């Protein structure tokens, strides 16, 4: 029985990569191994998408039968970071008994708590994220593009992260938050499933069975790349949108991380079991669907059908 200790000192974490360097050893734990976490939340700034990755790892370990324990270092109950962590449901999801001494205001249009999603609740959570984008200045055309792209990211987790390629068998965690001073929305969708490489190379009808993990992650954003269970359209459109938006998209699966922005870069890094996708969206930089799909293509026709189908539903979110 192995013992793995993980120190998460958020005073020294500046990125998902920094955090994953500390979390990655947890994925080597087996059933009945002991994984002990020590957390220090006394940082300058704390993001819910960082906390979500900790929740994911905790959930993965418990599901596979590892023994998980933890403690907080220099913990102050009335600290702003502790209150924030509680408000986004971090403590509740890792099983820490934190007594809130503040009033919870409705987060509508500002942020979502860290939430687990599957087929049963994905549409409700998806609507909450779309409301954040609608309220905070995203124009109609870009709003519809984002609706298409974000739904594809959810769909990838639901339909490609589970074992056996069973439709709707996957699940994951998600959170989103708007930052007014930066005019940006941060969104992360994460799972601890089979990962892009296995999803792309082990399906019986896949054309990409010879891909290495690096090739699978690098090419997953190319138009038409799919394991045959979809059109290979969603990640390509999302990457194009983030490039035009001058935002940021990170896809991390297995031991490879792909950065999609003005440039596309991939590097080998610390292991994540499954896949997470992080988006940093500029709400004041508009993107037209024509810049992505063109005006005369099968993809444009598909997008137009999608737009006509969902735009009424966007108005119905209220």
UniProtKB/TrEMBL annotation:
Q: Which UniProt keywords apply?
A: ATP-binding, Nucleotide-binding
Per the record, the domain of life is: Bacteria
Q: A Gene Ontology molecular-function term? A: ATP binding
Task: Identify the InterPro entries for this entry.
Answer: HATPase_C_sf
Q: What is this protein called in UniProt?
A: ATP-binding protein
Q: Which organism is it from?
A: Negadavirga shengliensis
């Amino acid at each position: 029985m192995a013992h793995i200790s993980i120190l998460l000192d958020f005073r020294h974490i500046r990125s998902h990569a920094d955090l994953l360097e500390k979390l990655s050893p947890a994925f080597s734990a087996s059933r009945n191994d002991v994984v002990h976490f020590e957390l220090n939340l006394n940082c300058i700034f704390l993001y819910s998408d960082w906390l979500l990755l900790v929740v994911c790892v905790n959930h993965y370990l418990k599901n596979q039968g590892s023994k998980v324990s933890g403690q907080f270092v220099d913990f102050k109950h009335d600290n702003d970071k502790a209150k924030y962590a509680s408000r986004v449901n971090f403590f509740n999801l890792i099983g820490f008994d934190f007594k809130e001494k503040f009033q919870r205001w409705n987060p509508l249009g500002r942020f979502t708590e860290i939430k687990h999603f599957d087929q049963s609740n994905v549409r409700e959570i998806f609507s909450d994220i779309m409301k954040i984008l609608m309220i905070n200045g995203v124009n109609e055309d870009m709003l519809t593009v984002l609706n298409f792209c974000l739904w594809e990211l959810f769909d990838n987790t639901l339909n490609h992260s589970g074992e056996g390629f069973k439709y709707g068998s996957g699940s994951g965690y998600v959170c989103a938050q708007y930052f007014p001073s930066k005019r940006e929305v941060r969104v992360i969708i994460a799972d601890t499933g089979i990962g892009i490489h296995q999803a792309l190379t082990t399906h019986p009808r896949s054309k990409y069975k010879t891909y290495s993990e690096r090739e699978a992650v690098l090419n997953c954003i190319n138009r038409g790349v799919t394991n045959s269970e979809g059109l290979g359209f969603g990640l390509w459109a999302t990457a194009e949108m983030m490039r035009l938006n001058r935002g940021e998209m990170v896809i991390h699966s297995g031991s490879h991380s792909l950065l999609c922005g003005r440039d596309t870069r991939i590097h080998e890094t610390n292991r994540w079991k499954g896949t997470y996708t992080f988006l940093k969206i500029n709400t004041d930089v508009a993107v037209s669907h024509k810049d992505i799909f063109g005006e005369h293509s099968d993809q444009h026709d598909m997008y137009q059908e999608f737009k006509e189908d969902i735009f009424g539903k966007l108005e119905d979110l209220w």
